[in-house]
Amino acid sequence: MKTFLRFVGMALSYDLAINVFLILSVQYQCFVAESNVSVERLEQYMHIPSEAPEAIETNRPLHNWPSVGEVEIRNLKVRYQPNAPFVLQGISCFVEGGHKIGLVGRTGSGKTTLISSLFRMVEPTEGKIIIDGLNISTIGLHDLRSIPSWHHSTRSNTF
């Protein structure tokens, strides 16, 4: 009987050791899997295309641009990926300077994409956005995004 109890004690001792070993091995496998995901994410970030230049010295807008605030959108077509379908399909409109407008539409109708196009967060595939006679695709991103009236209008229209 004593020998049997010794074997039971030894089996319980090994059982606890194996249990700890299994827990540690599963934790290590999770750590390795997380590390691989981080490496994959870094690899994806390395292949993201860069934005347009901040300033194009040969085509800088005047200091008082935009003076009137007219916005003309001509046949604007936008897609997020090269072979993806168009998100905006040939939008054309004209907004006179000094007017405030609102974008209204259903979920997925392209409101955010249109605003993103105005700031060139998304580059148009076709068409033009012209502000006070200047095609915004021809100027640098800093020159476009640092327009004082953008900051004033977005700040005053937030709730």
From TrEMBL:
The keyword Zinc appears for this protein: no
Gene3D superfamilies documented for this protein: P-loop containing nucleotide triphosphate hydrolases (3.40.50.300)
Superkingdom: Eukaryota
Alphabetical keyword list: ATP-binding, Nucleotide-binding
Domain annotation ABC transporter: ranges: 88-145
Classification via InterPro entries: ABC_transporter-like_ATP-bd, ABC_transporter_C-like, P-loop_NTPase
The keyword Ubl conjugation is annotated on this UniProt entry: no
SUPFAM superfamilies in alphabetical order: P-loop containing nucleoside triphosphate hydrolases
GO molecular-function term, one example from the UniProt record: ATP hydrolysis activity
PANTHER family attached to this UniProt entry: ABC-TYPE XENOBIOTIC TRANSPORTER (PTHR24223:SF263), ATP-BINDING CASSETTE SUB-FAMILY C (PTHR24223)
Protein name: ABC transporter domain-containing protein
Organism this protein belongs to: Populus trichocarpa (Western balsam poplar)
Source lineage: Eukaryota, Viridiplantae, Streptophyta, Embryophyta, Tracheophyta
